[in-house]
Amino acid sequence: MKRYLFYLLALECLLLGLYACREKVSKEPGPDQRVTNEQAPPSDLKYSDTLFVQFGRNAISVEPTVNGSRPMIFELVNVTDNRFSINSQTGQITVRGGVPAGTYSLSVKATNAKASYIKNNALVVVVWTIVPSRVEYSPSFVVVDSGTAYVTAAPTTNASQVTYRIQNRSEVPAGIVIDSLTGIIRFPDTLRSNIYRIRLQLVNSAGAFSRTDAFILVVRPRGYTPGAYPTWTWEIRPILARRGCTNCHITRGHITGIGTDYQALVNKHQEVMKRITIPAWEPFIMPPPAEGYDPLTPEEIQTFRKWAEGGFLR
Q: Rounded to two decimals, what is the model's pTM?
């Protein structure tokens, strides 16, 4: 009987010991639990795809996926161009217009309470260009006295990696030069009194584009003072050039020659006055707004009137 009780007591102790061991094991954190409790460092940061951007436009990437405990802070690594930026909370990367065409590999650092982690070449950005279709100088029409040098500002365009050249080189004095990379044009102080019209060509890997009268410089005689009545040479011709009339009206002795031919404009002056003063919605207004030209200002129209009143002075 005593032996039976001894065995029963021993069995009970054994069962209690096994239960206690099981409870201890079940309360110990597993590998996943330990990482969660101790904060997991960032790892395996990924963006789902390459970011393709058209030159001149803005673009925003998707949020990256990344392992690790939150909150987490994101930073770009070794990026000095402020046209690239990152949302520190989400990791989304913004590319602002103006980044030259090309391929850019961006590295990102993720930081949480546990550690920092850098993913090299985390996002590839491809900026692609288009055929040039626009170029603008500001200002695009300038009047100077003879003996005065002039340097333009760099033009703006809708394309990137553009090469600039003066297309009407044979019509322009050799002293007028252009920077092929920036488009800046330099006019020397040795130019004679005249109107200098620059037809510009832009070329990049996607194609080419030309613009007539991209820039116009009027060099007047030094000390020139307008008289009581305008002249063809120094008041009327500059208006025609500035308003684009010289782009189309170039046939001598005809209405289509009024942009460059003194006698043609004198002969057709009444018709021209009618067409530059009719409302903008009329189909025969000149210059034509539908083709991107601005109408003459009231001051320019008055100059045409006074030219006629003065007897069409040359």
A: 0.63
